[in-house]
Each structure stands twice: as structure tokens, then as C-alpha cells.
Amino acid sequence: MKLAIDETRCKGCNLCTKVCPYRIFKEGKHPNLRGIVVPELDRPERCTNCRLRHLYGRQLCGVCQLTCPDQAIHWVEEEPYEPHKVAIEY
Amino acid sequence: MSFEDWFRQDRLPHIYCAGCGNGTIINCTLAAVDSMGWKKEDTVFVSGIGCSSRAPGYIVTDSLHTTHGRALAFATGVKMANPKLHVVVFTGDGDLAAIGGNHFIHACRRNIDLTVVCMNNQIYGMTGGQGSPTTPRGCISTTTPYGSTEPAFDLSELAIAAGANYVARWTSYHVKELERAVKTGLETPGFSFIEVLVQCPTNFGRRNKFRQVADQIEYIKAHSLLKAKRDRLLEQGERIPEDMYVVGELMRRSRPAMGLAPTEVKP
């Protein structure tokens, strides 16, 4: 699983930057085609739900998805053989 | 299946302003409805007029978008006509407390098997920021330009006094707790009332020194007081600050309810 932000729905309120316990969402810098500054993902491989969803077989955390007022945050399955990045936190 | 399946994908993105918390509350309510395992044909969403009442238009189930303040009256009719339906009412503070106040207390008194989610943004958001019955004292709106001088309505206390079976109050910051509260409300037979304090950056925050969306969220988060802590403070005889919102499950009881589905007799 990996995090994805739907740019056609996001309105740039930056509420996700406040609620993620890992602070994965960062305020964006550049406006997109619709003139909206969409948040950026900072090392999204740290997300709990991305890493452990299939192991536990249920939704974990998911606060960003519930909080997003515009239903722009969701998880997508990776393509087969997509390279994985591993983040190690000390 | 997740709560995203309950949205009408062709209607999104919705018309709410950037940073409006109504979308958060719709997410939480739909997550709770989804976890109940109800069928979409058996669920009805009812709403009145206002920002909050746009919500059923974005949901795939059958819905009613009714006249101002009469959401509960229509929902009562739906429930009494077919008690097998699960009825959830989205409403706002201007809708429920101001023009629909009478319907609200009588729905509480009758204890009809409804779940009411009240998005309390403390102002009339859709019509341009007029002061509503829940505008806190001292807050600026277009009709109270020198600060509201009236005391605000406490909707949860009103629901408790009028006889609702389940009353809870949360804010749009407490998403997980809100989801759990809505789920408990859906499970409870009888009238369940969940009041949600929500930020309104366009009409409330802009005039009340919350320049960013996050400022008002931080304010609501810092000024919410858990009910357990409130009780502890009362026991110790300490004063509770005036501007705190008491959040948590405020009432759960089992008064006889009306409009319950008849229990099916197994052959």
C-alpha cells in the first residue's frame, strides 16, 4: 500500500499536516494547475497503514483519511515489482 | 468495503470551503454507518437547510433535503412510516437550534429511533455569517459586530433535559472518538444526539482572529474538556473555566423508545 493525494479534490487546507502522528504531510511549495498548493509527502514509507495493513488485515491509524474534509487522501496498491524504499527510524 | 464507497464519486469534490470541517464529520459518520454493516437501500439520510445539510447530496443512499429546520420532522415521518429504515439526520446549529428548536425538543421527548449528527459551527455559515443561537458570548459575526452579548445555547444539555437516550459531544479534531460516538448512537435504540463542534474558517474564523484554518482547530482542541476531567474538577470543588467545551459521552440511558423496528419472528 502507498499513500496518495488526489490533486483534483484537495483544496489545500493543510489539515493533514496537523494530524499525522508521523508528520508525513508537509505544506507544499508550488501551486498546481488549479492554483492549489497541495501538501507534499515526506518519506511516505513510514506510514503505519502502508506498512502493516496487509499483516494485520485491517485499517490501522487512518486519521489523515478521516480528517481530510475533501476525501483526497487514500491508499493505493503498488504495481507488481515496484521498488520499495525502507525507512529506518532511530 | 470502506466509507469511501458511500460517497457519490461523480458529485465530489464538494462545495465546502477549504478547511471546512463538515467533510471530516461526513467521513466519520459514514465510517460508523459502514461499520454497522447496513445495506445502502435500508439507510436514509435526512437534512434541512444550511452548509451541513448539503451532506446527503454526496451520499449514494436515499436522502431527503428538506425545508429549513424541519429535518427532524421529516425524519420522524420516514421512521414512523417504515420503522425498518435506518434514519440518520445531518443538521447544523442554525437549522436545529434556531428554527427547528421545537422539532428538536419534541423529537427528544418522543425518543424516536433516530441518530442526529449536529455540525455546530457556531454561526450561520451559508448565508454570510449571521449570529446563531450557539455563537459564544463575545464572538463577532455580521449581526453582532461588537461581539455577541447573549449567552449561547448548550444543545447537548437541552437534549439531555428533553429526554434523548444518547448524547455525546465531540469536535472535528477528535475523529476516532467521533466515529465511535456515532457508532454507539446508531446502535442505541431511541434518540441519539451527537453534537460536533466544527471550524468555519470563512465566516467564523475570519472575523474572530483565527486567520488560518489550523488556528481554530488548535483553539477547539485546547478548549475541549473531557467529561471525566470535568467531573473530577467538580468533585474537588474547583472552578470550571467558562469558555471550555465539555466533550465526551454526556448521557446514556434507556428510556422507552418510539419507532423501533418490530422484532422479526423466526419461523
Description:
- The complex is a heterodimer of chains A (90) and B (267).
- Chain A is an alpha+beta fold.
- Helix content of chain A is 20%, strand content 13%.
- Chain B is of the alpha/beta class and 267 residues long.
- Chain B has one domain: Thiamin diphosphate (ThDP)-binding fold, Pyr/PP domains (Rossmann fold).
- In chain B, 33% of the residues lie in helices and 17% in strands.
- In chain B, helix 1 crosses helix 6, helix 3 packs across helix 4 and helix 4 crosses helix 5.
- The longest helix of chain B has 15 residues.
- Chain B starts with 21 loop residues before the first helix and ends in a 15-residue tail after the last strand.
Note the main attributes of this structure.
A: 90 residues; alpha+beta; Alpha-Beta Plaits; two-stranded antiparallel ribbon; 3 helices; 13% strand; globular; B: 267 residues; alpha/beta; Rossmann fold; eight-stranded mixed sheet
* Largest interface in this structure: A-B, 20 and 26 residues
**Computed CA radius of gyration of chain A, to the nearest angstrom:** 13 Å
The main sheet of chain B comes to:
8 strands, mixed
Percent helix of chain B, as a range, is: 25-40%
Short structural summary:
The complex is a heterodimer of chains A (90) and B (267). Chain A has 90 residues and is of the alpha+beta class.
Layout: helices, strands, pairs:
The complex is a heterodimer of chains A (90) and B (267).
Chain A: E1 2-5, H1 16-19, E2 25-26, E3 40-41, H2 48-56, H3 63-67, E4 73-76
Antiparallel strand pairs in A: 1-4, 2-3
Chain B: H1 22-36, E1 43-47, E2 62-65, H2 71-81, E3 86-92, H3 93-99, H4 101-110, E4 115-120, H5 155-162, E5 166-171, H6 175-187, E6 192-197, H7 201-205, H8 213-222, E7 224-226, H9 227-235, E8 245-252
Parallel strand pairs in B: 1-2, 1-3, 3-4, 4-6, 5-6, 7-8
Antiparallel strand pairs in B: 5-8
